[in-house]
Amino acid sequence: MSRSSTPSATVGKVVKVLCSECKRATNHLVEASFDTAGTETDYEGGWSIDWSDHHQVVRCQGCDTVSFRQTSWFSEGDDEPSVRLYPVRTVDTIASQSFLNLPPALKRIYGEVVDCYNNGNLTLCAAGLRAIVEGVCADRLVVDGPVEVPLSGGLTKTERRKSLDGKIAGLHEKGLLTQDSAATLHDLRFLGNDAVHELKRPSEEDLKLAIEIIEHTLHQLYEIPAKALALNKSIGRSSPPPTSVV
After folding, report:
1. 179 shares a domain with 110
2. Are 69 and 114 members of one domain?
3. Maximal CA-CA distance, the chain
C-alpha cells in the first residue's frame, strides 16, 4: 500500500459550497488544506484500490464566513466524492440567534436545541424545547400557577399546580405572557411530553415552528426589556419601562 500527503495542495482553489449565512451555494476560496491519497494493490490478484481525502478551510467569497470542508473519494464507491461540511448544514439548517441577555444555562440549552435540529436529532430537540420552557419558569421564579381542572357534568374548578402546565399559567398570572402566548407554550409542552414520555419523533416542520416560537419568546422576555431599559437611560427617563408581555 502506498500513501502520500500534500499540505496546501488545493489552496487557492475555488469550490461551490452551501454557505450557512448566505443560505445558498456560493464560491468559496480554499484558504488552507491537507490532502492525502493512497493506493492498495494486489499484484497477484491483479487489482488495486485508490482513495483520496481533502481537508480544507474554506471562506465564502460573498460574506467571508469561514468553515471546514472534507471531501472523500473511494474507487470502489460512487464516482462523485462525498462531501462533509462543518458546521453541519443543509438548505433547511437553522442559524442560532444571538441572545445577549439570556441567562447562561438557557443560552446553552438553546444552542443544543438548534444543534439537535440541524443534526437530525429531532426527539432530543423537542425535549430541549420543553427544558427551555422549564428554565424560563425557574429563572422568573414561577413555581406554580392556576390550572382549570374538568369535573363531571361539564364543570371545572381552578387549582394551583406545580407541574409545567401550572408554571406556564403562572407566567401569564405574573403578567409575563399574554393568554395566547401561554397557550402556545402549552403546545410546546405537549410536543416535549410526546418526545420524552412516549419517545415520539416530531416532524421537522413542527420543530422549526416551535424553535421560532421559543426564539420570539426569549427575545420578548429578555432582549427587548434590556433594550428598552438602555433606551430609557439614554433619553433620561427616571421611571423603569413597563414589563414586556409576550
Report:
1. yes
2. no
3. 89
Same-domain check for residues 40 and 162 = no
User: What is the 8-class DSSP label of residue 200?
Assistant: -
Question: How many CB atoms within 10 Å of residue 196?
Answer: 15
State the cell numbers at 115: 444543534
| Rounded-to-integer distance, Cα 134 and Cα 37, Å | 51
The packing angle between helices 179-197 and 204-218, to 10°, is 130
- Identify the domain containing residue 202 by its residue range: 104-235
Burial class (CB in 10 A: 0-12, 13-18, 19+), 14: exposed
Count of helix runs (H) and strand runs (E) in the chain: 6, 8
CA distances from 164 to 29, 104, 106, 189 (A): 49, 21, 17, 8
Q: Report residue 188 as a C-alpha cell.
A: 410546546
Question: Which pairing describes strands 66-74 and 82-86: parallel, antiparallel, or unpaired?
Answer: antiparallel
Helices 179-197, 164-173: inter-axial angle, 10-degree rounding? 160
Give the global pTM. 0.69
CA distance 167 to 61: 48
Task: Cell numbers for 203, please give them.
Answer: 416532524
Q: How large is the C-alpha radius of gyration of the chain? A: 26
Give dist(CA 51, CA 49) in Å, integer: 7
CB 171 within 8 A of CB 145: yes
Please list the rounded mean pLDDT of every run of 10 residues in the chain (246 residues).
79 92 91 90 74 93 95 82 86 85 96 92 93 95 92 89 93 92 88 84 91 94 89 73 57
